[in-house]
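Fig. S4 source data, part A: sequence.
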Amino acid sequence: MTRGKQKIEAQRRNAEKNQKAKGSQLEARAVALKVSCPICKVQLANEKQLGDHYGSKHPKENPPAVSS
């Protein structure tokens, strides 16, 4: 069993080890969202979602061509 300074140091090391990784979900979201609707500027993850978005939100418009 540790006492005094050893105990305090062990608690500090455990607290540092158990801390959650710092970072924002907004940063991860910005990386994942690569396609945006030119009409309403909503960001989508891929071309398929863009086609679905046009079908539901902009039914009178044609979706933009797929850029490969």
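Fig. S4 source data, part B ends here. DSSP finds three helices and two strands in the chain.
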